[in-house]
Amino acid sequence: MYSEQDIAAAVVNGTLSAGAASALRDHVAMRRQQAAASEAYARPERRLRDVFVIMASLQLLLGMSALGGLLASWSRDLQLVLPLMPEWGPSLLLALPAWGLAEVFTRRRRQALPSMVLMLLFVTGVSSVSRQLLPLFYGLIDDGLDASARYRLVECAICTLLVTLAAYAHWYRFRVPLTVAILCASLLGCLLSLLLLWLPQADAWLTEIVLLDGIMVFALALWWDRRDRRRLSRHADVAFWLHLLAAPLLLYPAWNYLAEQTLLWPQLILLLLLYLGAALLSLCVDHRALMVTALAYVLSVLVDGLKPYPDGFYPLALASLLLGGLLLLLSLFWPACRAVLLRCLPPAVRDRLPPLAP
Predict the structure, then answer these.
(1) Are 312 and 306 in contact (CB under 8 A)?
(2) Helix or strand run (H / E) with residue 8
(3) What secondary structure letter does DSSP report for 357?
(4) What was the pLDDT predicted at 308?
């Protein structure tokens, strides 16, 4: 690769004429423009290719599952000794082909969007199979809650445990970033089900348990962020999905408290402080998931809280206008606001956070 200084030196030494140097510069500039235009065209083309693969995969897998359901229905109606398809067969016909397609579109072709859809179809199929096989496990636990509640908790525990194992196997094989968030969510659901199964009184601490789960997921997301502070690898994508999972868990206790209160000025101030806190935390970690979730919670509380008032629609419209405007302003000046905030933090904390974008 020759630099501009090398070309200028060649012209000075007489090795290259000025006209030839100018023609070389024009040629290189034209090639770069063509490459940029080709890349700009290739990006939408790649997205369209991903959408095409997703649509084709959905049609194929859902068609196979529907055909399996039809065979299972015929076997049930005809009361065959050896059924053409077991009851859990259609779900299995959703999970196994999804894994097979992931071998092509995830492991070989590295297509991001089809990889996420195929992973979700795989864990959905595993969850459905586990629910249909649940009668084999029913009755293992005899003490605790009443029969219907015990059955639901056992069902939830077994389904989430199998989804956790399936998600771990999928992550070990394909390394799709969204899988880690699915794994964490299913593992937390399994642990919560087991806790409620063996300690029914824990239902009174549900809000605190959800908050603790959110803190743990948020800490895990920060750990993934620290592994790639400049966000150049898969680690940053894993952290993004974990932040998206942690956000509703962290904000749920405050939303649950405000949803049960009469919407007066103290509650409105607390709601504003909640949103500002979520915005500051989002700026610190450079992820907008907390802000988006906080905005959804704020609007939900406002809608429920203003229902008793005859003119509640107008304050809601005004609040939506103000919050939307502030959110857009913060999006426009995100780097500047983040730079100001990071300068106020101690160096020990600032060095653990993602750096400012150049």
Answers:
(1) yes
(2) helix 4-13
(3) P
(4) 61
**DSSP assignment string, 259-306:** HTS---HHHHHHHHHHHHHHHHHHHHHT--HHHHHHHHHHHHHHHHHT
Residue 349 CA from chain centroid, whole number: 26
What is the DSSP annotation of 116-174? Answer: HHHHHHHHHHHHHHHHHTGGGTTTS--SSS-HHHHHHHHHHHHHHHHHHHHHHHHHHHH
What is the rounded (10 degree) CA torsion for 345, 251, 261, 310? 100
pLDDT at 179: 96
Give the number of other CB atoms < 10 A from CB of residue 254: 20
Q: Residue 270's pLDDT is what?
A: 79
Q: Could you say which residues of the chain have pLDDT below 70?
A: 1-46, 80-84, 135-148, 262-264, 305-318, 357-358
- Number of residues that make up the chain: 358
Predicted TM-score (pTM) of the model is 0.79
What pLDDT is recorded for position 99? 96
Distance of alpha carbon 150 from alpha carbon 138, whole angstroms: 9
DSSP 8-state secondary structure symbol assigned to residue 358: -
CB of 278 closer than 8 Å to CB of 251 = yes
Tokens 């450079």, residue located: 286
- DSSP annotation string for 235-265: HHHHHHHHHHHHHHHHHHHHHHHHHTS---H
